[in-house]
Amino acid sequence: xxxxxxxxxxxxxxxxxxxxxxxxxxxxxxxxxxxxxxxxxxxxxxxxxxxxxxxxxxxxxxxxxxxxxxxxxxxxxxxxxxxxxxxxxxxxxxxxxxxxxxxxxxxxxxxxxxxxxxxxxxxxxxxxxxxxxxxxxxxxxxxxxxxxxxxxxxxxxxxxxxxxxxxxxxxx
Length: 172
Known about the structure:
Blueprint: H1 11-16, H2 24-42, E1 46-52, E2 58-64, E3 70-76, H3 79-83, E4 97-102, E5 116-121, E6 124-129, H4 142-162, H5 166-170
Parallel strand pairs: 3-4, 4-5
Antiparallel strand pairs: 1-2, 2-3, 5-6
């Protein structure tokens, strides 16, 4: 059985479909995600987008550090997107570090002071404010860390397999 990834299309895929154009808010979120992914890579973290949590929620980006620490990023592409979303506190019990990633023109003063802030565009990102809650008080318990890490590994592996051709899958 070949697994297929039904996640968001890449920019190249969107351009390959005649007449397809991403909605402005979707495009902004994609640009923010791209910049945030680049920052995470520079920090030595492995990241995946649209990470499904055991609670059924889906984080925009999850990252795993070499030390096993787990970081979650929630992307906000507009004020309406932020104000219409009350689910982000549910992510806190699944990570050591939590950030909002927003565009450079986003009014960061409306974001909670208890969370980190990343400013991002399609070319890169930088941490504006570190997550003030990270530290010993917000370290995941061993059982939760193991469960989240295993989920991360399985999702990443299934997405990798979905991108391989049928004949490549058979040779692995």
